[in-house]
Amino acid sequence: MRLSRVCIFAMCILLGALANTRAAAQSPGLPTDRPLTLMDCINYAVTQHNSVRSAESDLTGSIADVKRAKSAYAPKFAVGSAFSSIGALAGTGNTGFLIAQGTDTLVTLSQSLYDGGRTQTLIRQARAARRSADADLELSIHERVLAVTTGYFNYLLAKRLADIAAQSVAESQGQLELIQARIDAKDAAPVDIYPVEVQLANAKLVKLQADNDVRVAGNTLRNAIGLDRGPELKLVDVTEPSQGVPALEDSLTKALLDRPEIVRSEAQLDSSKAALTLARLQALPVPTANAGYQQDLDGNDIGKEWTLGLGVSMSLFDGGALAAGVTSARARVQSAVLTNAQLRKDISTEVEEAYLNLTNALQRLEASRPSVTLAQKNLEVAREKYVQGMAIPLEIVNAQLSYADAQASNAQSLYDSYIARAQLDIAAGKRGY
């Protein structure tokens, strides 16, 4: 017996190890031979991030709870064995002697036939909890998709702003050399160098901050994906968006049907209604019907027995506990109804806000394109005018600042539009990614 238990235990360990190995082999890893796309990051996050895996475990538990609740309708089969020894004391010396001794091994089969609807109500609650856990898992995936998408484009934005800052440093350095050459050639006053030196120092400060922002954004993205701290990620950049803006009413309708929060809220409402039904049942007479069969495997006197029982019970006085339970359950139903109604209002507001943000980001992106072109042309003109002695260095500095600001605004609008679209998709309850 001991050897068989050891073998069974070892087999369980081996099967568990094989299952873990298979799961590890099937889980997607991040590509290392190329820059990562947004889908690479999302696919990894929705399978490996701990928040999603935790929600999956909760769903597994809820599925098991439904099965456990349903098991009340299933026949119960049990085997039991007991050793007994009965003795007695007799005579003035309290001499003991054995009356009976033996082992009884019983096989019992029982079945609950009816309990006044209580089991069915508990199953209803378990099913509602399962739907809620299912919605929680989908909500966790939605949150992970949005977090990764936001982190992905914020990282690309930080990289773009760092490149703009580096370009400003290089341009300021070139302008400084140009003015210094003119000063050396006696074509410009020595004071001309000061505005450009100030601008170069400021540009270096901006670049230091931009480089730090890149590192911070990279760490935020790694955490959103579910990665430990590590080297800088290489990402695939994006072009300007080509998709239009979906109709607001379509997004609102879809959100109120498909948002996992709506599904969860309705499941919680159903659970609270089931709890109210159960509380009311507790205050009613409890009818029961059950059947059973028992057989002694040792051939003793018990032999075979069967039972069929019908009964009813009712609490006559409990200090008001049952009435208070009904009142409490009714209040929770009302709370769930109000919560569901407010949730629908909140979701409608969230969808409209995401719609407005996307529209605004696309409008800003459209307006920023000519600004970049004009600012670049203005910088070129200012440089040429200074070379010809028709402008002062401060004009170049101002033109350079305007050009950097225009580039930054364009980059901000570009990545904001991608983030805003993701926010609208999630707000509308878009399934899939």
Major sheet description: 4 strands, antiparallel
Reported CATH architecture: Up-down Bundle
Overall pLDDT: 83
Assign the structural class, choosing from mainly alpha, mainly beta, alpha/beta, alpha+beta, or little secondary structure: alpha+beta
Question: Could you say which overall geometry the principal axes of the C-alpha atoms support?
Answer: elongated
Could you say how many structural domains there are in total?
Answer: 1
Q: In whole angstroms, how far apart are the ends?
A: 54 Å
Determine Rg (CA atoms, Å): 37 Å
Spell the H/E element sequence. Answer: HHHEEHHHHEEHH
What order do the strands of the largest sheet run in, or round the barrel if closed? 1-2-3-4
Instruction: State the fourth-level CATH superfamily.
Output: Outer membrane efflux proteins (OEP)
CATH topology group:
Outer membrane efflux proteins (OEP)
Task: Outline the fold blueprint.
Layout lengths: L1 H25 L11 H11 L1 H21 L5 E15 L4 E20 L3 H67 L8 H33 L22 H11 L1 H23 L3 E11 L7 E10 L7 H67 L5 H35 L6
Antiparallel strand pairs: 1-2, 2-3, 3-4
Please, could you describe this protein's structure?
68% of the residues lie in helices and 13% in strands. With 433 residues, the chain is of the alpha+beta class. It has one domain (35-75, 114-289, 319-427): Outer membrane efflux proteins (OEP). It has a 4-stranded antiparallel β-sheet with strand order 1-2-3-4, with no helix packed on it. The longest helix is centred in the middle third of the chain and has 67 residues, at 118-184. It is elongated, with a radius of gyration of 37 Å. The model is unreliable at 1-27 (pLDDT under 50).
